Amino acid sequence: MTTVQSPPAPPTAIRPRVVARTGLYAVLAANAAVVAFFFAQAGFASNALIVLGRLAGLYGALLMAFQLLLVARLPWLDRRIGMDRLTNWHRWTGFGILWTLLAHAVFITFGYAQSSSMDPVNQLVDLAETVEGVLRAVVALTIILVVGAVSGRYARRRLAYETWHFIHLYTYVAVVLAFTHQVAAGTTFTSSSAATTYWYAVWGVALGSVLVGRLVLPLWRNWRHQLRVTAVIPESDNVVSIHISGRDLDRMPARAGQFFLWRFLTRDRWWQANPFSLSAAPDGTRLRLTAKTAGDGTAALRHVKVGTRVFAEGPYGAFTAMHRTRPESLLVAGGVGVTPIRALLEDLEGHAVVIYRVAEDRDAVLYDELRELAHAKGAELHLVTGPATPDKLAPSELACLVPDIAERDVFLCGPPGMTVALLRTLRELGVPKQQIHHERFSLAG
User: Fold this and answer.
1) Residue 248: which region, alpha, beta or left (left: phi > 0; alpha: psi -120 to 50)?
2) pTM: predicted TM-score of the whole model, two decimal places
3) How far apart are the C-alpha atoms of 257 and 253, rounded to whole Å?
């Protein structure tokens, strides 16, 4: 298998994640300043509550547009920041939207009630009945409150992903309703042709990004590559590898360490998307995923037939050699988290140490491949087995295995408990944060 090797990152290079994150912050700050300028240009109301309400509404609208950008799955951002971090930022931005729009509704209602001597409830009803677009805004706010409630940690843990995702899709309805409210009732929106052009551009870029990243690009890539299953190989009692081929795969921008959302287009599985990492570096002729068949959905992967059409969204993720800061590396895998680690080892240059943590020897899937690959690349491979307690990767044990750990990039993929424990261990051993790379491989949310 031939792979494209990545040259070591120059020590003085600005990290791609820093560039992307700084760019996002700069875009948000610049737009916040523009919003404030157009708000001041439109003039202030005599009632301070109304002034605060209008400003909160404008910043709520800006955050809604920014939130859409975060989940548009644009390749440039995703490769540099990663879907997991973008999704996390999207979540916190969502709570920002919730509070700013709630403040908008409360301040506006109480401000007009103060001027008209009506009670707030009757004032809100009056505004909804007499002012164009206000009723749509009330519906949009109600949707956002419901989505915010089901996105809280307590609710998310008790809802199936499909249920949560279906409810979450109503956010797009809220976005459209909020935009039409802004067009109909927004004094800042209509205060000047420049302000009107600006807001149309903001919403156009946000919605266009979602359309391109979530629909157009996946459809185009799948039409271009025509993916099909070429082999289904059991790796153990509960792990299976699926080999996929297609047209012009040398032109697919996939890298070792990334993942796809895979849909196998059979009658009973076409609607179900599962996130699985590539378990081998792309070689331009085939892709391979390796999955643990834990539930009913993934267990059915063993029975996927050769020739089955595949719809793949991606590649996604920033867990790649693109983010190296040091010429040498440490790769730590836990359980089936070995899949992106095995692919990364194939792609990385420089000396590497690989630690594979499993409960028992029989759980070490792909171990023979990993051993052969480590031998070919001159890497050290350590298989660590045993129960979770005592921790065999505690600071003292890890320092013995890798004495120069603070001088290496660390790529980590494993179960959540192991990941949290190892991140704490790496901090204790003095590994700089910018040298630690890990990613949660899952669907957004």
Assistant:
1) left
2) 0.85
3) 12
